[in-house]
Every structure is written in structure tokens, then in C-alpha cells.
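ok so I'm stuck.
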Amino acid sequence: MTTTRWKILPLVLLCMIVCVPAVMAKEITMAPAGSLAGAASVHDNYPISEERAMLFVKDFVGDFDMDLVPDDVESLPIGNYYTFYSNDDRFWVNQQSGDVEFAHFNSNYQNCQSNDGNCIAINQTRDQAYTAAQAYAIEKYEGFNEKHWLLIEDTLINSTAGSEYSFMWREYIGTDRWYGTTKEVTLPNIVHVSVSASDGKVIDYWGVNRLLSASTTPQISMSEAMETAEDSVPGDIDISNPKISLTLAERTQNVETLVWIVTFDGTRGDEKIPVTIYVNANNGRIIKDLLWAESWLE
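replied:
not stuck anymore, here's the structure
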């Protein structure tokens, strides 16, 4: 899962769970299950056993004879997961739904064989890669064609491990009135597929599908949110080029919050400091805890 899109969050609480040799792998930073499980809804129950979860992985891959090894239980703000290994590949199964929501196929990387470390073998065009990625998303993500998607990532990524095309879709809904720069609200649902630029094989898949359970009408106006964000920037940082968007974000498990996301170009002397402020669209307070998916996409 490509390099910089998932922020490494405070290591006191979080641990890295993708330890693959490929440089390009997107980093998923999860917590041990105990650190977030206490924040889950009291209505939660996890009927999916580890044995059934293994069957879901085998069905996802289409190989019921695959060698699959249980690893651990880990967490994101969107749920708790069983994790499994199959040689160098890894899978994350949502404990509540049984869905394989994350998969990393390290076996599909093209290993570097060049003495000079130049392994950028691009045999696929962008359109070929997009067609392959979209087809995989349609196959693995239930109802993909029924949702409204914004393509928020469409890029070719090169490294000494190889090259991959990375595509990411984010669901949005329209609103009845304008909230400043946009009239869409992005939702927690997201699909990411990356494919090898060498042969078009899938390297990474994310598929998060959640029911809408909170209002998308803000109680705090765009101008109020912008003022709050500006006031929260440290005085030694000069800011410019403000941008604002409205997102329904997951903060703790099964708790959705409507959030104004305000970004600035920041500078301190000659140093460039990008600034992102999250403002609760219901009460105007600054949000400092974890968000899905914005914190992982910056």
C-alpha cells in the first residue's frame, strides 16, 4: 500500500503491522485490539469466528486449498480485524461482517534484479491499469457500481522495488445546498486498488463499506469553521491558500462525526509546513483524535 498516504500515528499506542520488504507498500498503522475495542459501540457483537474468517479469505482469493496462517487481532477506528498470512501475502478480515477489507499481495511485486537498483519496468499503460483495478474493485466490493465515487488518487509510483499504478475511490453524496467550495459530503467508504505496472497484477486492495448513520447537515457554517481553524494555527506559522471540505468521518469504532477539514499552505521562515485542521461540524470544536480516512490519506 504505497508509501506516504498513511500517516504513522503516535507509536506509544500504535504499531506497524505491515512489515513487507517491498518499499512501495502502503503503510497501515493499526492499534492492538485492546486499545480501541473499548471505544466500540455497546451494541457490537462479533459473531465471526477465526475459523470462519479463514474461509472468507479463501473465498476472497478463490483458493480453498491455500496455506493460511492466523496472526493477530488488530484495530482501526472502523473496526477490529483478524489478520492472516499466506506466505508473503496478508489479509485483514472485519470481525463483525467477515468482509476481507484489506489485502496485500506482496507475492505480486516484481523483485529488483538490476545491479544499479533501477527496477522501473512499465509494461502497462495507465488505462490498462485502471481497467484492471476497476474490474477488481467491481468483483470484490459489493455494490461498487451503485455508489457515487470520487477518484481521489490516480498515480504511477516508482521505487527501487518496482512500479505500481495506484487508484483510490471515495464515496460522496450530494447536498441540498452549497457549503462554500463544494456541495458534496465525502463518506467513510473507500476503495483502493494498486496494480503492478509490469504485469497488471493486483498488489493492494482496500474495501470499506459502511452504512450512513449520521446527519450530513452541518450545524457550524463554513465561515465559522474557517475562523476556528485559522485561530487554532500557532502564531509562528504564516498561512495562505485556505481550502475547506465536508466529510463524514469515523473517529472511534462505529461513531461517525461530520467534520469540516480545513487545509492551509503554512510557512515558518523558509520552512514549508502544510497545516490541516479538523473542526467538528456539529459543535465547532477542534478534533485531535484519529479520523478515518483523512488521517491516513494525507
